[in-house]
């Protein structure tokens, strides 16, 4: 069994719940129309919002299946970084407690995704002693 199974399940559940509930409570449409279109993505804000949430669903499934982990991770990390820049950073660090809607949660998700993508750490290619 893969050592990062628990992390993959946790992130998969978070991505799924964050996306699926938005489908049924009009959150995706509101995010597209009331936020993305208003900050300069009009007339594509709604489509972009749906692409983001569909990418989260696909990434969640891939994480759960342990397939294409790096591709799913890179795309999701890009979206999370853009979320930090556009939405969360102006609100500060804390999600609750010392503030509201901050970037700490996205930061943690990015770190977990990197740990899942690189379970043995980052390796820099170096020449072997025999070269």
From TrEMBL:
Per the record, membrane topology reads: Multi-pass membrane protein
| Keyword Transferase attributed | no
| Top-level taxonomic group | Bacteria
| InterPro entries recorded | DoxX
According to the record, the segments passing through the membrane are 5-24, 44-65, 72-90, 105-122
What are the entry keywords? Membrane, Transmembrane, Transmembrane helix
Q: Name one Pfam family in it.
A: DoxX
Q: Where in the cell is it found?
A: Membrane
Protein name (Swiss-Prot/TrEMBL): DoxX family protein
UniProt organism field: Flavobacterium artemisiae
